[in-house]
Amino acid sequence: MLIKRPADVRPSEITSKDNYLNRRKFIQSGAIAGGSLLTGQALAALVPTDRGAKLADVHVSDFSTSEATNSFEDISTYNNYYEFGTRKDDPYLNAQDFEAHPWTIEVEGHAEKTGVFHLEDFVKPHMLEERIYRMRCVEAWSMVIPWVGIPLANIIKHFQPTSSAKFVRFETLHDKKRMPGQRYRSLNWPYREGLTIAEATNPLAILAVGIYGEVLPNQNGAPIRLITPWKYGFKGIKGIVKMSFVEKQPGTSWEIAAPNEYGFSANVNPEVDHPRWSQARERRIGGGLFASKQPTLMFNGYGEQVAHLYDGLDLRRNF
Amino acid sequence: MFTDAFEITGRLGANPIEEIQDRFGYWGLRFVLLTLAITPLRKVTGKNWLIRFRRMLGLFAFFYILMHFLTWLILDQSLLLSAIKEDIFERPFITIGFTAFLILIAMAATSTNAMRRRLGKRWQQIHYGIYVVALLGVWHYWWQVKLDVRDPLIYAAILVVLLGYRIRVRDKKKRQG
To answer: B4 — contact with chain A (CB < 8 Å)?
Structure first.
């Protein structure tokens, strides 16, 4: 079961106690802030990020790193999620009211099982694991995030893709009303991403549904998003509504937007610079004002699990 | 304590170095544009005494750009010379930003009355540099953005208006003279 709940009441009908109290706290604090000289940014500081409901039955994984995790506050307030705005604090400010339930995922393409599934049914057959992963953004910053998710390999096995399925393609929700950032075409909506079938079934790839043992905050891609820790963060498509098994390499949003800067593979590689900045070093978030950047690792340090996927490939051309 | 001073007026967020560096840059660019706004404002409002503020605004611009550069040099790049050299010479948007900074240094160093007297005609040549600084500054910002160019577009639009005014005034003078 994804969430422990009374059997006769749907989760979408319950206002969680946190939400109930926080909404009232927000209205009160709004009244106080409105009467003061605080700037818009200080007002934003009063808006809490609701903690999600606890996830039950989460198993520990050997793939987790032992490095210190970033704080929930950092992870949930510094996000690239252009569907809610292009500033780092836009997602947490603008996604507070986003309803991630009810949610459906369409599975289509070269597979034995296809169809439209409620998120609960999509997730139900599978075991939840905690994966504490490094996340390296193409902008040269990184975090360590304790995701809760399902190995993508298990999900794919369930749908039984045929031999024609060479790639897995993902798509995000496209709804300007619910995702106000989509009113501006910073990217060609909806966001789309893809992996080779070998990458998608690699043990490291997961579909994440939570962080810190709780349901995923909206700004982190609720209710379900992809995590491929050996690739730059933009490969981790959020708010997934469609998963397709396709024959040809799919176009991906950032590659479409700037093909000379963002590639399909997007493997973390300190030896291949972004045209406008170096990828040799990265800033680990949470280090404070005087922490220096640290060296970036090949495949974000996950070479042992994924390097073999790229044997013989010129990683400068396939970037 | 240093960060507390900033926290009073607004959160620095999860990446404080980036936030500080960016804010210094924005204010530097704004003050550059403000110095360019003095002459049009004088002409349009007839308040000639506004000229007295131009040097002060220019020096504010230099101060903020200096802080923007030092934040980058010390906090972001940790004074690692090889990475700094690579960035300045191999990343075009940093090259033009650094060039604008060098021009501003020259202008700040020659901003005193004594310098103006000593340099004569050369002084004005150096201080026409503000046009180059403004162009390079807006370009530097635009080139740094990944996809959302709306903010740089606003600065560019303001620059176009400020420069366009001067071009129009010069054309009018040519036609009359």
So the answer is: no
Q: Nearest Cβ partner of A278 from B17, B18, B87?
A: B87
Name every chain A residue with its beta carbon within 8 A of the beta carbon of B14.
Answer: 70, 73-74, 77-78, 88, 285-286
How far is it, in rounded angstroms, from Cα A94 to Cα B20?
Answer: 23
For chain B, the domains span 17-176
**Distance from C-alpha of A32 to C-alpha of B145, rounded to nearest angstrom:** 36
Site from A75, A260, A276, A281 to mutate, B interface, most B CB atoms within 10 angstroms? A276
- Compute the half-sphere exposure of residue A171: CA atoms within 13 Å on the CB side of its CA: 19
Angle at A296 between CA A252 and CA B69, to 5 degrees: 95
Q: What is the pTM of this model?
A: 0.85
pLDDT given for residue B12 in this prediction: 84
A145-168 pLDDT tens trace? 999 999 999 999 999 999 999 999
CATH of domain A53-310: 3.90.420.10
Which residue is associated with the tokens 């506050």? Answer: A73
- Dist CA A290 CA B71 (whole Å): 10
- Residue labelled with tokens 């010390």: B74
* pLDDT tens-digit map of A171-202: 999 999 999 999 999 999 999 999 999 999 99
Q: What is the ipTM of this complex?
A: 0.87
pLDDT score of A16 = 53
Determine the Cα angle at A88 with ends A234 and B153, to 5°: 95
- A294 shares contact with chain B (CB less than 8 Å): no
